[in-house]
Specification:
Elements (H helix, E strand, L loop, with lengths): L1 H4 L9 E2 L10 H17 L1 H4 L2 H16 L6 E4 L2 H10 L6 E5 L4 H8 L4 E5 L5 H11 L4 E5 L11 H10 L4 E5 L18 E5 L11 E5 L39 H17 L1 H21 L5 H4 L7 E4 L3 H9 L2 E2 L1 E3 L2 E5 L6 H14 L2
Parallel strand pairs: 1-10, 3-4, 3-5, 5-6, 6-7
Antiparallel strand pairs: 2-8, 7-8, 9-12, 11-12
């Protein structure tokens, strides 16, 4: 486990249980960023002429890690830009299905447009609620987070695959910001049509970078309106009318997208299977302990599988108490949200539990 903690100096001073809010910046990414800007300082346009190569490397790494052809990987600055560009490319009056109280940046993007919207409840019967909503009124698109930011409920991706087979004409659009980087994922074999992920959380890539993955047929289903000089530059975009180029209309930031490439190299080095096993082990232990202490909502307790994000009962005083012990968490939805990544340890979980008991929760 110590090998997985190396390169994250924040862990030397904090018990960091807050990846669901902001991932850590690995030393490997920091070193890349220092060298990148030094090269820019000394080389200016000579250095920037290599921009296309750098972006191609990032695009290909994203495709390799998440099993999607590079020509269908778009590099975008953040989730909100990606989802807004996508929605502007849809028919003006489609029927949409959302999850009630899903991540605001996802739901707001949909509700701010002239769509006909239905909702499914997020609880222990999440999949059944979604299936019923589909039967009631088949949506033109279903937009949802794979993992819920408030309480960590994770949708069953096997269920999504089956639902897509039953409703092949519905677009399945997933926010994977709280998911990618936690377990192995094959986009091509999934039931998703579009995946969007900001990478500053579980991928530890810093801010200002995100990516989108598309199934091939999306070129005929989505018509983005954006276009700029950057839309036609690069190995996978150098032809007029290029689909992914319409999600990349301007100059691309090689500092931020290069940071994503370095973060993905670190994931490959550590091994996504090893990362997933560490996270799953910590999640199972945490859920068992939190359940025994009656700290979780019933909808989480009653789920068979869960992510590594938990919202435990407690308010501002508990949050401040944990903060005084250098345990970093977030206040979310009236509770204290904790999240465990692969660099966290059982010792840190036990330290958290000790502080919760001493506080008297």
């Amino acid at each position: 486990m110590e090998n997985l903690r190396k390169g994250f100096p924040v862990l030397e001073q904090y018990t960091y249980l807050n990846t669901a809010a902001s991932g850590l910046l690995p030393e490997a990414v920091w070193e890349f960023r220092q060298n990148h800007d030094l090269d820019f300082l000394l080389g200016a346009s000579v250095f920037k002429e290599k921009q296309a190569e750098a972006l191609t490397e990032t695009r290909e790494l994203v495709g390799e890690v998440f099993k999607c052809a590079p020509a269908r990987v778009a590099l975008v600055p953040n989730f909100s830009f990606g989802i807004s560009t996508l929605l502007e490319g849809l028919d003006k009056h489609p029927k949409a299905l959302l999850l009630k109280n899903d991540y605001p940046s996802l739901n707001w993007a949909v509700t701010s447009r002239n769509f006909e919207i239905e909702y499914a409840e997020i609880n222990e019967n999440l999949e059944e609620n979604i299936a019923e909503a589909f039967k009631k009124q088949q949506p033109d698109f279903f937009a949802f987070s794979i993992v819920q930011y408030l309480n960590g409920i994770k949708i069953d991706l096997g269920f999504v695959n089956k639902l897509k087979q039953e409703y092949p004409h519905t677009l399945f659009i997933a926010d994977a910001t709280q998911y990618c980087g936690t377990e192995e994922f094959n986009f091509e074999e999934s039931g998703l049509d579009v995946l969007i992920c900001s990478t500053y959380k579980w991928l530890n890539a810093g801010y200002g970078n995100a990516f989108m993955l598309f199934k091939k047929e999306m070129e005929n289903r989505i018509s983005p309106k954006t276009l700029g000089f950057g839309s036609l530059r690069g190995k996978y975009k150098a032809h007029e009318g290029n689909f992914i180029g319409k999600f990349e209309p301007g100059h691309q930031d090689t500092l931020n997208y290069g940071s994503l490439a370095e973060a993905l190299k670190l994931i490959k080095k550590n091994g996504i299977k090893e990362i997933s096993a560490r996270i799953e082990s910590l999640s199972n232990k945490a859920k068992s302990e939190f359940t025994e202490m009656d700290l979780l909502e019933e909808s989480v307790v009653n789920r068979k599988t869960h992510s590594s994000i938990f919202n435990i009962k407690g308010g501002e005083k508990l949050f401040r108490h944990l903060q005084s012990k250098n345990i970093i968490t977030s206040m979310r939805g009236g509770g204290v949200r904790v999240s465990f990544h692969y660099f966290n340890t059982e010792e840190e979980l036990h330290f958290l539990l000790k502080q919760l008991r001493e506080f008297g929760v």
